[in-house]
């Protein structure tokens, strides 16, 4: 990648480093805005609502998959990576959306899903028809089963969504699917697979896309030497990545995966400015930053930050490690609090420590009951803290409205494959994917002219953009003010911790402005400095619990 400076960002559209400290807004297209009234959000809906993003003050938007899909996994089962799902629009609609985004000064990122395709993809259909040993099967991971008649799966590998990661086809062979059975894994040792993804990266880059989010970036390279290695009970799932964070896991985070991204970087650097990329890799910090190296993707989502509880000590530690590891890799740090896969942070941050989010969702959000007002207060404090950190912040649609998780969706409306695949043990991720409320009234609160694909609770009326535009001190107003201020304040990527009382975090950014968060249970005095913004109004001149303030350098004036 071209030279990276850690100095103040250049905001010209041609700056190759525009992403280093950008704020990127994630759109989950099916839940953002529905222009044609079929209940599913679409591309024209996004175009109509782009001014929401420019008014908000973000730098870029990232679209989760909008490609043709059977929706077995909310679009992450891609049937054709170089087209638009007809229910969501056309390529012309997409081009119009990109043009409008660029006119408004917004960059556009799209999702690349390289670990698997949909079972409806022409390649997989061909593989099914062509039979064992065919070139078509070589693009995927087909194997004979174990047992006298091949009746057992080829290994004990478990799907992330539950159950065996292997499914048998009528001629007796098995294919690997680390996610849903409708998402067969590709074999990245196959040169045709590699070439096809280079084509996809060029296809969207040629259409003006500025960057890519890489789905399951740590999953592509696999050790498929025979006999396949069983994992046993202890090493299944995400936990294994903590235990085996050394590149030795048979299908996650293997060292060979980096070769793929070095190849992609050459493709992305052929554009002006070079296309940026960010890895989705649920691996520990020191392994994650490898994906963000300058000759690879450039950035990787910081899920360790997302997983950190509301604790000053833990946050300080994770922020320090994240900045150090990013710097060592030549990358900028990233921060994320919510996305389409996790419980929204306005709810998550008040789940008592040790609560299993799946069990909480299964109880319909009742056990334990959570304090929604406190959750919102914390979410606002967490946002100001995140937006003050050096590096990029990724915000998820609806968090600017303070939306909580919709934990009580009834089982009959659930769409996430996790619900069925776990035999109704885990409800899945639909609760953070409920379509956005834009207006106080209407069949889907302005999401579209009719009902939305997932039911919205009545409380969404008061969370709507319309309601919040009229309410002083709303969460929407906080995001708008914070993002405007951030642009003015942003300097280089340095951060200096200031001494602070237990339960309080304070750091200073270049130029001398600072951020202080009170995570303790008592109000704390505000240090000197001009008060620029608070997540919750001060209490008798003190910073209340669960509150963040941004301070300028000038001494505090009386009465501010
Ligand atoms: C990623 C996506 C998630 C999807 C999975 C399989 O983790 O964020 O939504 O289910 O990959 O593609």
TrEMBL record:
GO terms of molecular function: alpha-amylase activity
One Pfam match: Alpha-amylase
GO biological process terms on file: oligosaccharide catabolic process
InterPro entries attached to this UniProt entry: GH, GH13_cat_dom, O16G_dom_2
Entries under Gene3D superfamilies matching the protein: Glycosidases, Oligo-1,6-glucosidase, Domain 2
Residue span, Glycosyl hydrolase family 13 catalytic domain: 26-433
Keyword list, A-Z: Glycoprotein, Hydrolase
Family membership noted in the UniProt record: Belongs to the glycosyl hydrolase 13 family.
Protein name per the record: Glycoside hydrolase family 13 protein
Organism: Streptomyces himalayensis subsp. himalayensis
